[in-house]
Amino acid sequence: MADRYKMVNGERIKLTAEEEAARDAEEAAWEAGAKDRAMANLRTKRNNLLKETDYYALSDVTMTDAMTTYRQELRDLPGTVADDATAADVDAVTFPTKP
Amino acid sequence: MSIIKLNNRAVKDATAVGSITGLGNLKFISRSTASSSSSLSITSGIDSTYKEYIFFFNNIHPATDNVVFSFNGSDDSSSHSYNITKTTTFFDAYHSESDSETGLSYKSSYDLAQSTDYQPLTYQVSNDNDACVSGFLHLFEPSSSVFVKNFIARTSGNNEDNHAQDDSVGGYFNTTAPITALDFKFSSGNIDSGTVDMYGVL
Question: What ipTM does the predicted assembly reach?
Answer without folding.
Answer: 0.81
